[in-house]
């Protein structure tokens, strides 16, 4: 028995529409009337808009970096806040005599309403370049246009002021900082030079010189010591000579001859050595061979020869010792002694001066030593001083650079070469009111009328299970249709039908008239249509 | 088949006899034949289309209905037919009266039209009879039936009006007497059709009693008013077997139909 829901056929829809025509027409009539009424009744509001382009700075930013770094959005926000500020809006209200017809209105409410009517909007449509529009809406088109233009010019002025103030402010701040840094730099410079003056010679950059001086002094000292020692030796020699001469002058000379002889005898000659070796060899050979062995015999012969030679050598020795003793013997002579003494005095003087020079060198060396030893400490101190100095100098330099840039930027702002606003479209006299939006009202009332009708029809049809179509009886109920009797056409029914047709026609005509009027309003614009109607009525 | 043949033969003879008396079938124009007009009282209800406008679209529909009932696809035609509809004012009496007229007019069968709607009887007004004794009186007070039968201006059509409105219509119609009456009426004349107009079964209970006795049931459906559920209920109560079919009343012409009602010829 159960049958799947059949798709609704177009003729069935048409039938439903015809059956429910009253609903559709009445709903349309109602909403179109409502729509037209609202459109005519609603207060007219005009909107004037000024399009402002944000122009990038004309001097390339590689050359002059702008000091004004806040983003355009931020700036627009700031400026729109300024524009929407109470004092500014008050000024505009006074200037244009707004709300003059409403003396009972509070100023706060006026300002609140003004704020709602001013609209600053960033336009994203233009790629890359940014632009924004200032819109003002109100009931009087002339006034709306003038206020929109005033707002725009105020906006521009404010922006320039803000930018310049920002640039000048930056420059002044940098000035102040620069001065402060310069003072600190000078202070440090002074401190550094004082330190250098105080520790002159012991500064780390003099270490090499100091070390070399120390080396030189060391060398000098060594040299001087050598000279001193030599001088001392010479002095001792000279003194011993003097003594010798003096003692010899007082005692005979014989005592002195024995000592050189004994000295001479101690000397072992070559032959004696050879002899001793030969004797040792001979003793060794005898332990091995008999005395008749040829080698032993030959060695005995050699020993014999050597003994002769040694004996010969010892004889002339006695003669030679006598010869040198003879010149020493002569008595001391005065001139020689005198020369020696003067020589001694001279040497003594030399030694004294050398000692003094050595002392001097030693003292110098101590000083230099100390300097060298203290160099690391000084270096550290100096390093910290230098570091501070370098830091401050860097800061100073960078500040100086920035200051120069800031000055450039200030000049740029002053000459308005920086980023600035340019009015692309100044506000025009609005011809068409933005509100009421005829298009919106038109489509809304049409949609509402048709929608309500469609909704009600849908609900009615959905819950309507009455039998209308033959299929419902034949297929769903499985009953045959024996006959289909149309409505009887009595004269009463006919009259009613005619009345209905007439009423329906009237309603349709009404709806069509409102539709047409609405369409004209939409196409021609509200104002023009109304003025046209007014002139027609006057004529 | 033999019986049927006999019946048809007899009917043909009767027909021939009656044709001379009332030449209904010879009328070709849309106007009511002069003879009929003379017979018809002025007060006949305008809804009697089969009488007043025998060549109108509506009358033609009743002819189709008659043919559908009298010549079923299989089996004998039902002799007693109950006309009902789920709710009041869906056109039961209108259909019953017109169907009865249609049957009585066109073939040689006699028709008895019974108004069983004891609550709000209307059939007698359709035929412009004054209020008088009827079925209720017969059942309640055992008044003899022949007195109550009214001969209408169509020869073979006899009307049994409802009579005075009783207080207990349900009991009366469910009574044994009523059943006997129906049996008697059915069986007395083989060539007589009994058309029974009933009260709406959704509101009253007496229709069930009648439904059990009759041969066939015709359901009147009012276009756009009678719901599917109501008809389904009737099917549940009476059983699909007895229901001959549905009559769509107050039907509207389909919007896109170029040939109005052309498809009804197919119904069987």
From TrEMBL, chain B:
One of its GO terms (molecular function) is non-membrane spanning protein tyrosine kinase activity. GO terms for cellular component: plasma membrane. Pfam families: ParA. InterPro entries: Bact_polysacc_biosynth/exp (IPR050445), P-loop_NTPase (IPR027417), Wzc-like_C (IPR005702), YlxH/NBP35 (IPR033756). It comes from the Bacteria. Keywords: ATP-binding, Nucleotide-binding, Transferase. Its EC number is 2.7.10.2. The keyword Coiled coil does not apply. The keyword tRNA processing does not apply. NCBIfam families: eps_fam. This is Putative exopolysaccharide biosynthesis protein YwqD. It comes from Desulfotignum phosphitoxidans DSM 13687.
């Amino acid at each position: 028995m159960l049958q799947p829901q059949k798709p609704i056929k177009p003729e069935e829809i048409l039938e439903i529409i015809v059956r429910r025509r009253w609903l559709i027409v009445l709903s349309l009539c109602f909403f179109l009337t409502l729509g037209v009424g609202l459109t005519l009744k609603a207060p007219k509001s005009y909107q004037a808009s000024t399009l402002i382009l944000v122009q990038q700075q004309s001097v390339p930013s590689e050359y002059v970096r702008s000091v004004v770094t806040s983003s355009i959005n931020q700036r627009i926000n700031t400026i729109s806040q300024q524009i929407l500020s109470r004092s500014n809006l008050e000024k505009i209200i006074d200037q244009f005599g707004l709300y003059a017809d409403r003396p009972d209105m509070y100023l706060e409410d006026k300002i609140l309403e003004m704020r709602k009517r001013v609209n600053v909007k960033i336009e994203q449509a233009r790629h890359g370049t940014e632009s924004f529009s200032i819109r003002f809406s109100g009931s009087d088109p002339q006034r709306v246009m003038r206020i929109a233009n005033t707002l725009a010019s105020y906006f521009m002025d404010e922006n320039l002021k803000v930018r310049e103030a920002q640039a000048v402010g930056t420059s002044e701040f940098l000035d102040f900082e620069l001065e402060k840094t310069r003072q600190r730099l000078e202070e440090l410079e002074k401190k550094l030079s004082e330190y250098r003056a105080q520790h002159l010679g012991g500064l780390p950059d003099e270490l090499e010189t100091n070390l070399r001086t120390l080396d030189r002094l060391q060398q000098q000292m060594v040299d001087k010591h050598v000279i001193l020692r030599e001088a001392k030796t010479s002095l001792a020699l000279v003194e011993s000579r003097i003594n010798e001469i003096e003692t010899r002058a007082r005692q005979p000379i014989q005592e002195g001859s024995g000592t050189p002889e004994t000295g001479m005898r101690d000397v072992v000659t070559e032959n004696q050595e050879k002899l001793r070796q030969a004797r040792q060899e001979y003793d060794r050979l005898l332990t091995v061979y008999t005395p008749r062995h040829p080698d032993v015999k030959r060695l005995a012969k050699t020993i014999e020869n050597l003994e002769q030679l040694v004996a010969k050598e010892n004889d002339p020795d006695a003669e030679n010792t006598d010869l040198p003793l003879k010149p020493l013997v002569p008595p001391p002579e005065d001139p020689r002694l005198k020369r020696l003494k003067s020589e001694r005095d001279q040497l003594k003087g030399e030694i004294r001066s050398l000692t003094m020079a050595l002392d001097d060198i030693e003292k110098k060396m101590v000083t230099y030593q100390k300097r060298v030893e203290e160099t690391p400490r000084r270096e550290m101190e100096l390093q910290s001083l230098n570091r501070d100095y370098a830091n401050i100098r860097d800061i100073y330099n960078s500040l100086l650079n920035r200051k120069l840039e800031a000055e450039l930027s200030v000049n740029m702002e002053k000459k308005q070469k920086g980023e600035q606003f340019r009015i692309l479209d100044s506000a025009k006299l609005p011809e068409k009111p933005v509100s009421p939006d005829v298009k919106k009202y038109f489509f809304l009332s049409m949609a509402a009328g048709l929608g309500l009708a469609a909704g009600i029809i849908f609900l009615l049809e959905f819950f309507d299970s009455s039998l209308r179509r033959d299929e419902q009886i034949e297929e769903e109920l499985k009953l045959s249709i024996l006959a289909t009797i149309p409505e009887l056409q009595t004269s009463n029914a006919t009259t009613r039908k005619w009345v209905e047709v007439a009423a329906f026609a009237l309603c349709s005509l009404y709806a069509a008239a409102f539709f047409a009027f609405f369409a004209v309003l939409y196409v021609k614009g509200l104002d023009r249509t109304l003025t046209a109607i007014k002139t027609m009525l006057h004529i | 088949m033999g019986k049927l043949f006999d019946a048809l033969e007899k009917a043909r003879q009767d027909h021939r006899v009656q044709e001379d008396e009332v030449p209904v079938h010879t009328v070709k124009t849309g106007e009511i034949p002069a003879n009929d007009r003379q017979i018809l009282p002025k007060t006949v209800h305008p809804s009697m289309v089969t009488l007043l406008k025998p060549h109108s679209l509506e009358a033609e529909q009743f002819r189709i209905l008659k043919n559908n009932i009298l010549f079923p696809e299989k089996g004998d035609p039902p002799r007693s037919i109950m006309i009902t509809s789920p709710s009041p004012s869906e056109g039961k009496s209108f259909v019953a009266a017109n169907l009865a007229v249609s049957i009585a007019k066109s073939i040689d069968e006699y028709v008895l039209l019974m108004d069983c709607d004891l609550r709000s009887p209307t059939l007698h007004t359709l035929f412009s009879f004054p209020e008088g004794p009827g079925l209720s009186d017969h059942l309640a007070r055992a008044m003899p039936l022949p007195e109550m039968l009214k001969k209408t201006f169509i020869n073979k059509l006899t009307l049994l009006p409802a009579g005075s409105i009783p207080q207990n219509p349900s009991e009366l119609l469910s009574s044994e007497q009523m059943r006997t009456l129906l049996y008697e009426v059915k069986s007395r004349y083989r060539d007589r059709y009994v058309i029974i107009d009933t009260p709406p079964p959704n509101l009253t209970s007496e229709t069930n009693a009648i439904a059990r006795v009759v041969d066939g049931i015709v359901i009147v459906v009012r276009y756009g008013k009678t719901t599917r559920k109501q008809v389904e209920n009737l099917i549940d109560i009476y059983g699909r077997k007895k229901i001959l079919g549905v009559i769509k009343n107050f039907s509207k012409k389909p919007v896109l139909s170029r040939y109005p009602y052309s498809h009804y010829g197919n119904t069987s």
